[in-house]
Write a structure and sequence with these properties.
The protein is built from twelve helices and 20 strands. It is an alpha/beta fold. Bound molecules: iron/sulfur cluster (SF4).
Length: about 425
């Protein structure tokens, strides 16, 4: 048995670097980390099927790659989605998209675009996880508990005493996410305010509007608890407003984000205040960064006109599924079957442990970054690229390897057509 201490976790975007992994001949297993995602996703068997499958029948990798290239090269409206890969995998996918005129989007981009829509309209003042941990003396958590998507957020980034706050005190206020979940137990005495409302609670948009009204100095008599919270925000040395827009319910979640951005701006006028919009599992942020470096646009970009063109509605992968005749679905982090249906063909790049109920046209097993091969992923606050090392060798290619082979096959078939005078 080998023990690997302090392994970087690539899954949710918090970048925990303290996972302990046991390895033996049967595979790897994590020591209990307090994170349900890490405890599940770092458990991988050594013996896995490394062959690709074509309509459920095992085929050599070369044959699968050639068939994938044939399908993608002949596609009228190809879609590259899922896009859950390390940065190299995403860059390879972008090269392929440009080559075949595909649309590119990440499975989890909804959460990202709820924030980006507001950033585009207003700009914003946001901070990092390190600033949250080291400098904030007041944390306002708005909406459902972000730890539902980022399990160790409180333990890793809020429970430790802030290094640069005189006296080391920090308070945490929850707005609109009550009742408080078990995940906040580690904050214990830091939780300053709870029970903003009794059951039933107003919706989140209403609560945020009431807080903004209180910050404007109105309605203190009718809403004394909001007035108290507004005063608390104004009195903080450095308040951080945290939200996970992907967890917001309701028809227009971006309007809640917009109200929060305006709220931050108001408080920031008299003391220090910043937002911390969290979204980023499965390297969503890295995929968006890579798309921006490569094309000048964020995700939801299409290459069908020969040059990159961005449209957050038209190139949302869920919309494009309706028209896509071939979908390349990339999901390197989680051995979980995606939930979507399409009338076109699906080429799936996913870990070999993935349990599939409806076999795609092609299934090509790939390794997971940080387990089967090294790879770079971005932290959820967008500012830090993390390098995850390899743990085991199961003979699985990376997403970048497989797509690189598809690109070679596409070139070869193009050359062959040219020689044949087609
Ligand atoms: S909180 Fe996120 S980064 Fe940390 S161990 Fe869990 S899944 Fe991994």
């Amino acid at each position: 048995m080998t023990f690997h201490p302090e392994i970087l976790c690539p899954f949710c975007g918090l970048g925990c670097g303290d996972i302990g992994i046991d390895q033996d001949d049967s595979g790897i297993a994590p020591r209990p980390s307090g994170c349900p995602q890490a405890d599940r996703l770092f458990r991988r068997p050594m013996a896995v099927a490394t062959d690709a499958r074509m309509a459920g029948t095992q085929v050599p990798m070369d044959q699968a790659v050639a068939e994938a290239a044939r399908l993608l090269g002949a596609a009228r409206a190809p879609l590259i989605a899922g896009l859950a890969a390390d940065v190299d995998g995403v860059l390879a996918a972008l090269t392929l998209a440009a080559r075949i005129g595909a649309t590119v989007d990440h499975e989890r981009s909804d959460a990202l675009f709820r924030n980006l829509a507001v950033l585009r309209r207003f700009g914003w003042s946001v901070t990092t996880l390190a600033e949250l941990r080291n400098r904030s003396d007041l944390v306002l958590v708005v909406g459902p508990d972000p730890a539902a998507a980022f399990p160790r957020l409180w333990e890793r980034w809020v429970a430790p005493p802030p290094a640069f706050v005189p006296g080391g005190g920090r308070s945490v206020v929850f707005l609109g996410g009550e009742p408080l979940p078990e995940t906040v137990q580690c904050l214990a005495g830091q939780i300053e305010t709870r029970g903003m409302e009794t059951d039933p609670q107003p919706d989140l948009a209403t609560l945020v509007t009431r807080l903004r009204t209180a910050l404007a100095g109105r309605g203190a008599a009718e809403d004394p608890r909001m007035a108290e919270l507004a005063a608390r925000l104004r009195a903080a040395r450095y308040a951080v407003v945290v939200w996970a827009a992907g967890l917001f319910d309701g028809p227009q979640p971006d309007l809640i984000v917009e109200a929060l951005v305006r709220l931050v701006r108001t408080v920031d006028g008299t003391t220090r205040c910043a937002g911390l919009p969290l979204s980023g599992a499965d390297n969503l942020i890295g995929a968006n960064q890579a798309c921006t470096w490569r094309t000048g646009f964020p995700l939801r970009t299409g290459f069908e006109a020969g040059a990159p063109f961005h449209d957050p509605d038209r190139f949302d992968w869920r919309s494009r599924l309706r028209d896509a005749d071939v979908t390349l679905w990339i999901s390197a982090f989680r051995p979980e079957e995606p939930e979507f249906s399409t009338g076109g063909s699906v080429i799936m790049l996913a870990p070999p442990e993935t349990a599939i109920t409806a076999e795609p046209a092609l299934f090509i097993p790939v390794g997971t970054p940080g387990i089967d091969h090294a790879g770079d992923v971005f932290r959820a606050d967008s500012v830090v690229a993390l390098h995850a090392g390899a743990l085991i060798d199961r003979g699985l290619p990376s997403v970048a390897d497989v797509i690189g082979r598809m690109l070679v096959a596409l070139e070869q078939s193009a050359d062959a057509r040219e020689k044949a005078g087609c």
